[in-house]
């Protein structure tokens, strides 16, 4: 699998999504509690731009009239038909046994640690202040 630098980590804020294109495929980058995840920007139900949907938590209930929000910021709702998917796994909550959004591994790496090429040029010291997000495809 090839690694692709897709964004500075600071660009992906919790509760929001940053959509990038890698090898012609749109991918949504998410920051859920400081952990990074990437999903294909296509709902498996009807092909909507999934990552344009609402990022939210999962409403859970043990008794009628009471509820709690589980997984805050860890779910995305498709903007067309409201199907919900777990951002961490891509798993559907409508049909969890059969439907899932393709997901990709995301790593946070310091700018100086990104893959080096075979040629070397004269170098100068540079301070690395931001980390970057790298997606493997």
Molecular structure report:
The chain has 137 residues and is mainly beta. It contains no helices and 9 strands. The strands form 2 sheets. Strands 1-9-8-4-3-2 form a 6-stranded antiparallel β-sheet, with no helix packed on it. The protein has a 3-stranded antiparallel β-sheet with strand order 5-6-7, with no helix packed on it.
The computed structural class is: mainly beta
Oligomeric state of the chains present here: single chain
Helix content: under 10%
Backbone shape: globular
Average pLDDT taken over every residue = 80
Order of helices and strands: EEEEEEEEE
**What is the β-strand count?**
9
CATH topology: Rieske Iron-sulfur Protein
What low-confidence regions span 5 or more consecutive residues with pLDDT below 50?
A: 115-128
Task: Assess the beta-strand content as a share of residues.
Answer: 35-45%
Describe the secondary structure blueprint for this structure.
Blueprint: E1 3-8, E2 17-22, E3 25-32, E4 35-40, E5 54-60, E6 68-77, E7 84-86, E8 103-110, E9 131-136
Antiparallel strand pairs: 1-9, 2-3, 3-4, 4-8, 5-6, 6-7, 8-9
